[in-house]
Amino acid sequence: MISTFLRHELKAFWRSKNTGKSIGVRIFMGLLILYFLISFLVVGFLMDKIIEDRFPNEDLTVVFCGFVLIYFLFDLLSRLQLQELPTLRVQPYLHLPVRRNLIVGYLAFTALFSFFNLWPFILAFPFIFKVIVPNWGGAAVGFIISVLAISVFNNYLAIYIKRKANLNGWVFIIFTGVLALLIAGDFSWHLYSIRNISYLFFGNVLKHPALALIPVALAAGMFALNFFYLKRNLYLEELSRKKASYKTSTEYPILDRFGAIGDQVANEIKLILRNKRPRSAFIMSAVFLCYGLVFYKNPAFAHSDWPKVFVGMFMTGFFIISYGQFLYSWQAAHFDGLMVSKVSFTDFLKAKILLFTTVSTVALVLTTPYAYFGWRTVLIHAVMYIWNLGINIYIVLFFANRNARRIDLSKGASFNWEGVGATQMLLSFPLMAAPYLIYTPFALLHLQNAGLAVMAIIGVAGIASRNFWIGKLVQDFYNRKYTITEGFRNK
């Protein structure tokens, strides 16, 4: 039956209307993955030399064992962002005499065919066979089993979290936050040492190979959790019941006071929560709230306003940029209907701006803990928040008028370039350059406060003249309406 599933998947691929495009994307991704495989293979073979250079007075095996757990923590973070869920069109099989265990088993088995599962072979195995096997002999078998078992555990844990997040986006945010806190507890707050914990386990695995049964049991348990979760949710009536209850949770009485604009915002929120790609943009805007830790922990940037202008713009405006650049592409599937409906396009734009303003305001509030690095940091964030709402929001909407590429909302965001074109590349230049064109002359004259004040004044002026700019954007859209709608019809 497994071979039948594979044949059906191949036939579905070759008979798809987008086969040519899919082949091109797969070839490109194959070449990219091949490049990374070769690069990591080189690193794997040189691992012992790299450790000797960086840790000249320490034992190679001790250092390596200390970094194994750190690697798997970052591996899990990467899987959560990039690993795709294994899929199968199960509906055609549910009314046939096909055992559900076979369908679920196929999905669970194909989940192992991820390029993330290759990294332990490429990075760790050369070192293991060059250093650990000669020194520890047969005990290295337990070490190898442990590494492979934890990789399998990460594989199924990431898949389980992503499946749960498809029903509730907070699952992803909370789990990612917990991982970030675990990493920060070591590298930022120094409450414990992940390196020492890693060596404590993997060092003892070399002495007592039977300990390898622990990660094997964890991997088997996570596989079983995925298996039974899929089996419980493999019934169409279960899926329909969940969707019905989900709809009732997206009514927002608070938006009633905004009238037609509030209705548009409510529909936009439903679109975000119910579809993978826009939900990924929203989740990433939440993840980007931690972006400041990358810069502000660095002493070279701690007392400089230059990186704070950049970071503040992205933390308070990431949702505007990531979601707004595909403003119409999200509605591509029903854009023709939208154009002939009674919805005023001016209200349509105002609803988008209201949504952007709300999310950016929440982002500004959530970044106030950066006052730990000084209240000036929060002040710069507030200035960039005003700049985003008064300037960047119009830049993004202007370029959105030039994007006529449709997006399939059901597809994930990782390795997905639907809707992406030259417009997105061009958008980055004014977004990056505009604030520094204002701020830099003042900064060079050591008038940083004056530069921030001018940026705030320009932002406030942009907010005050919002109706004027919306009118210009509406006029620009109508000039390009037929080009956009024609582009959305091309599947």
TrEMBL record:
The keyword Transmembrane applies. The chain crosses the membrane at residues 23-47, 59-82, 103-129, 135-157, 169-192, 212-230, 280-297, 309-330, 351-372, 378-400, 420-438, 450-470. Keywords: Membrane, Transmembrane, Transmembrane helix. This is ABC-2 type transport system permease protein. The lineage of its organism: Bacteria, Pseudomonadati, Bacteroidota, Sphingobacteriia, Sphingobacteriales. It comes from the Bacteria. It comes from Mucilaginibacter auburnensis. The keyword Transmembrane applies. Pfam families: DUF5687 (PF18940). Coiled coil: none annotated. InterPro entries: DUF5687.
